[in-house]
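hey can u run this one w/ flavin-adenine dinucleotide bound, need the structure tokens asap thx
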Amino acid sequence: MKTQVKALVVGGGAVGTSIAYHLAKAGWDDVMLLERDELTSGSTWHAAGLLPLFNMSYATTHIHDYSVKFYKTLEQETGLNAGFAVVGNLRMAQTQERMDEYMLYASTAETVGVPFEWLTPEQIKARWPLIRTEDLKGAIYHNTDGYINPADVTMAMAKGARQRGVEIVRKWQADGFEWNGSAWEVTVTKMVEKGGNLVPSDETEVITAEHVVTASGNHVQRTAKMLGIKMPAIPVEHQFVVMDQDPALVEWRSEGNGEHPVIRDADAQSYVREERGGWILGVYEKGAPSVFEHGVPDSFRADLFPLDLERIEEQYMAMIHRVPSCEESGLKDDFNGPICYTPDGNPLVGPAPGLENMWLAEGFSFGITAAGGTGYYLAQMMVEGEAEIDMASLDPKRYGQHWMTTEYAARKNEECYDHVYVLHHPDEEREACRPLRTAPAYDRQKAAGAQFGCVNGFERPNYYGPLDAPDSFDREARSFRRGGWWDYAKAEAGAIREGCGLIDATAFAKHRISGPGATAFLDWFTTNKLPKVGRINLTYALTEAGTTRTEYTIVRVAEDDYYLVSAGAWHAYDQDYLYKAIMANEDRFGRINEEDVTTKWGVFAIAGPKSRDVLNELVKDADAGTVLSNKRFPWLSMRDIELGMCPVRAIRVAYTGELGWELHHPIEMQTYLWDQLVAAGEKHGMKLVGGRAQNWLRQEKSYRAFGTELGRDATPLEAGLDRFVDLEKDFLGKDAMVATGVRSKCVTLLIDGPEDADPWGREALLADGEKVGRLTSGGYSVAFGKQIGMGYVRPDLAEVGTKLKVRMFRALWDAEVVEDSPYDPNNAVIRVDG
Ligand SMILES: Cc1cc2nc3c(=O)[nH]c(=O)nc-3n(C[C@H](O)[C@H](O)[C@H](O)COP(=O)(O)OP(=O)(O)OC[C@H]3O[C@@H](n4cnc5c(N)ncnc54)[C@H](O)[C@@H]3O)c2cc1C
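ok here u go:
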């Protein structure tokens, strides 16, 4: 065994094996894969091997698409047949809502380039007569995917990896990780058999590895403990059963008919595929418990749990309804194994929080489907610095480190498991473990009718519904079209444009950066000129590849004292990048102090033409009448003011594009400030406003949002943010940004869409019938009385006035590229004096 390597991959399941293969393929010739038992002995061996392309996430769809294409090439490369049965995948809908869901998914498929077709119940019946169709609305059909043998595909990747120089070491376990300043020293222990268990021996080695990747499957909690980090990946029990032969199926096949596609009956929470003349039935049922919350016992190796038939009875009966000929088939075999989950169902892929050169690939629930693409894109991140797609939605740091607990992860993962086949409404808010993180004004907001969303665990009003709403209100308000919340959001957006609205933005991430090195560091770390003392700027931290890593509102409080505000949903993700950059550059710039003040400061945003009038009711100053005037408090500046008895750091910006201020205040005075603002606002017709209206309003101003328009797949120049990039100075990622050029361009579009729906920001944009871009945001514009969206198109189509089409619900709708900030393009209303 080598003791010095470039990269050590821990875990020989499908995922770890693919990563080792792709690292070698990407050019690293010194890669080792370590497996505590045998390759595939984790969850991989008992997977059903389905490879569904269907996925609602853009990044994950790319990953699955890569896997499906890659697995088809493995036999030619390695000579090993991975058993890929390209039978296709038929996803059926029993309701119109389910068809709406598939149409939204089809937007993602179209933008990624995944082929699919629509089938009517009659077409399904004509092709596959054993399927009952009279209660179906239709189906979406992929003919390029199917299922594979999980162990065989892993072995083929292992062979491919070995051929490319990877050393695969079995029966050795990684037991400790120590960073020595330039590499990881990984203590590994020889594993031995003892009474059927696999246990550590006394034989140990230390492997020095520049990079480590963990892909430890069900052992993820042990790995997390060793690394001193939190990972909300915990397995849940998952079952499938193999049935005896179905005579009707045997006969049908004997007539020369091809194999059935994998049949997904989402409304019945199950999937079915053929297996030697019978069927395999897999289910995503309610009540599946999480397992191994505190680690995997030594006694659990390539084992299974007992079948719990009672738990899956409903799905079993539904299958008999769907494929009536199987009614008489008995059960031949069953599998109930651990399947790793995370609260949102996406795996944790990317750099580990707080650790250098430590990469995570954990929490895979579709790990056979995702292994190929994960290896490919993670290897790009490690070898080239960035992947060609934005991997942020899979980044391990999308979950906060300081508030996450095992209990939270376990309960959320159980919820995620039983939500696999619920309708994936884009306005869905999952309910488990809530409320958990609440700002002090939460109860008041709730009493005022707030329906909350969850941002990084924080409760934040999405909209204010009726005061006497039943608990089920928001659940019933969800839709793929305009949901029951739409009219409330519209009224809120109108209130900000015409009067005044109050928004809770407490979830914002907030950091104070100070000290002698702070100015030089931030000047290098971000793209824009640093503001003068008392002023604010919008600015960007870039990746080394020159794409957008973080958006900051940066406030210069004193010469070497800065207050950085960034997206609440990306708190740990942004913080990790910032802190790692500080640590790596302190020698160069001098001492820099960093302080996370996210939970010390609350934030309310007040906006609208009457917002100054509301604040004037409360502000205390020797000359209270002028403190909020343009002269004393110009746009894009900050002032410490007093609102009643509350000290407030007021920042004159408004994400909604109206006259407005962000009111940053000590969290312990939040309820006092809320009450003052609400009372003062009453006189001026102020409305409480949630995040949904704010999201629409910011698109009327073409304000890009992180995670949609802004991410690691576009530079700020592509995002059209040239005015926030100072090309006169040097900054991190500048050369790469310039060298990248403009591959596509961010535009704002006004859309003449359907009467009952707005785009969600996933839809394809077309010109002359050809796909030319995609929406990244969408919604309704109260200012223009029609749909609005933002997205990326080919640069030659970014001119104002360009006519495009947007596909929604299978139809094409007119869209026109409009000037940036179509509402108030000269910022006159933001700057209004008073
Ligand atoms: C019943 C069932 C059906 C499924 N069906 C499908 C399906 O149809 N399609 C699909 O895509 N997915 C399916 N899955 C999910 C799939 O099995 C997993 O997502 C996938 O196997 C995860 O692969 P992995 O490599 O991440 O983990 P694993 O396969 O669990 O591999 C992790 C490996 O790491 C090793 N390891 C852990 N810690 C250490 C250490 N410290 N040192 C050395 N080695 C270590 C373990 O021994 C193990 O071999 C199914 C799961 C279940 C339970």
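Residues 45 and 151 are 6 Å apart (CA to CA). anyway lmk if its weird
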